[in-house]
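Hmm, what's this shape?
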Amino acid sequence: MRVVFNIGSALAPVLGALLAFTALPVGASESAAVFSDTSRIASIGGSITEIIFALGEESHVVARDSTSSFPQAALKLPNVGYMRALSPEGVLSVNPSGILALHGSGSKEAVDVLKKSSVSFIEVPEHYSHEGILEKIRIVGKALGVDAKAEKLVAEMDAKLKSAEKQTASIKERKRILVVLSTQGGKILAAGSDTAGDGIIKLAGAVNAVEGFSGYKQMSDEAIVTARPDAILTMKNAGPPISEDELLANPSIASTRAGAARKVISMDGGYLLGFGPRTAEAIHDLAVLLYGNQVAD
């Protein structure tokens, strides 16, 4: 019997290349800056937009990128394109007073042009961790001149994240999870260290089944078997759909415990990998799908 779980809405657009980027190395973030004019902010990056709304500062946002699909109200804003393939002309066409962009926005050439324009550009670092989320909130709050609001939200998120992580603290046998980005051409593209996939499964009390590389890479059949996954995690709305039949028909996958049990978990990519205000809920949902009633209340 196949066990397939689906979570999330169809709000998130194609996230595709988002997963090909790894976290900004710790300590590599730029000093937090403040916009001199916050009247017309272009928000680039789904988690950045979510944080702005969570801070109650959405009235300052005049445009967003295509990954900014939550909350629903964000969809009413002009869309300046996909964050990994920005057009400087498109971003500047909304006449922003400032651009607040998540690390990894691009292309590099496009970002260089935006940074050289007369519009203030602030980049927000991305670390796939509990502290990384709090850092994002603080930097966004400082950029918008609402530090006090940001600290209040930080306290709320910190408590929620600690509670979500505590739910799996007593679990002795940790599940080994293979995070699969795509199966195109019969090749399994999986998440290594320093990725959003790696970060979220650790926060949910599980273990990344693959070791020895960072970022996302294609895995050999031997490497998949050696990984010994208990479950396979895939993303909805994150590029070309992954065929579960094709995935589970892969001989190397089929030979694993996950393949034998047909244990595939599919979650909305923006919700699961956003590392923003909804991450505590995503951690809880993933933990329940992995451990069931072992998850503490």
Residues 147-166 form the longest helix (20 residues).
